Amino acid sequence: MNIFSTNPAQNPLFQTIRRRRGKVQDPHITLAHGSGGKAMRDLIDDIFVNTFDNSILSQLEDQATFNLASLIQQGDRLAFTTDSYVVDPLFFPGSNIGELAINGTVNDLAVSGAKPLYLSCSVILEEGFAIETLRRIAESMQTAAKKAAVQIVTGDTKVVHRGAADKLFINTAGIGVIPAGVTISAHNIQPGDAVIINGEVGNHGTAILIARGELALETDIESDCQPLNDLVQTILNVCPQIHAMRDATRGGLATVLNEFALSSHVGIRLHENYIPIREEVKGFCEILGLDPLYLANEGKLVVVVRPENAETVLSAMKSHPVGKHACIIGEAIPSPPGVVLLKTTFGTERILDMLVGDQLPRIC
User: Which residue ranges form the domains of the chain, and what is each CATH number?
Assistant: First the structure.
């Protein structure tokens, strides 16, 4: 074989040489880390390429490329989503902004019935941000990605002047494959359908507010940040004909159900006695005048199924660690269309309207 060949595939010397990855030397982010030069390459190599290491990312192209044949073997449609994360504080009980970014995007794909596969990661860094903090966040992202069985395959890094951002913002986008025969949409909901949730609501919002240290309150409540894709697969294994499914993040359970009711032109009745809420969360909300049904969650999904499938789906959810506290909490009703009603513990009913404003800003 010609060792002077210009074809890398035929050159044994080329095959044995790997580009030496850089290592960041500064303790804090500087404007040079966003300049496109060596400092930026060292940062990307050290923090992101080394941490997220996989065969697609290591190509270091301006895009990630995939084999279409392998995707088609897994389903007949692609699901694509994107989200940005600006949570304050960056670290909070039970999780952090990095893990949140991975799980949030995985879950947005999963509730469509898709198998999440590939994610992108773009970061906006403020000048002066600590390198070791960034490293911790990147490592938590990789841990979350492995747990959810996805790969972070492309990304982008930007640096802004001190004071032009609040430490760190993350954007993640993701693609997944939807199996044939799975069509999940809020438009499918019919009167009589059962509404199921996989566990306690309001934990994430409560954990964030307490972590901000603005209140003299102590609690062991942690964020429920977790991937839901394995739970979704468990559900689809027993009932592929799920009518609707969505994760209850910003705006909480009440907002998701209002979106369902408006999309499907049916009413939804919830039973307050059936909704799982920790007593600590109830007490926290009573003190501050908040409603736990509007608090953000990061590991809760709402499933709507035909009444004859409800017990089968509920049993499957309860068999999974992420769904062990699952409950049937309500049903779809023919009227009033587009309205969510809450049957209270006193036997009365009240309208559970769409959230106006924001109870807690920068929650995710």
Answer: 21-178 (3.30.1330.10), 186-351 (3.90.650.10)
